[in-house]
Amino acid sequence: MSFEVFEKLEAKVQQAIDTITLLQMEIEELKEQNNALRNEAQQAAGNQDSLVRENQQLKEEQHLWQDRLRALLGKMEEV
């Protein structure tokens, strides 16, 4: 009787060890995915900063061209 109980306990312990091993593997995979996503987020933030700077530069160029065009139109009206 006690030998059967011991076998059942041993089986449950082995099942618990197997479950823990699988969960540890899953945790490692999730950590890798997390790191990959963190890197992607950092790259996206860097790209966003770059695009914001480029957008600002293009807006400034647009204002310069608008000012030049207004100046030329003003000169044409004087003629």
Report on the structure:
With 79 residues, the protein is mainly alpha-helical. The protein has one helix and no strands. It has one helix spanning 2-78. It starts with a helix and ends with a helix.
Mean pLDDT: 95
Which sequence of SSEs, written as H and E, runs from N to C? H
N- to C-terminal distance: 115 Å
> Proportion of β residues?
under 5%
Largest sheet: none
Q: Which structural class should the secondary elements be placed in? A: mainly alpha
Compute the gyration radius: what is it?
Answer: 34 Å
Number of helices: 1
| Helical percentage | over 70%
Stretches where pLDDT is under 50 for at least 5 consecutive residues are none
Count of individual beta strands: 0
Global shape: rod-shaped
Coiled coil: 6-61
Main location: cytoplasm
GO biological process, one term: FtsZ-dependent cytokinesis
Pfam family, one: ZapB
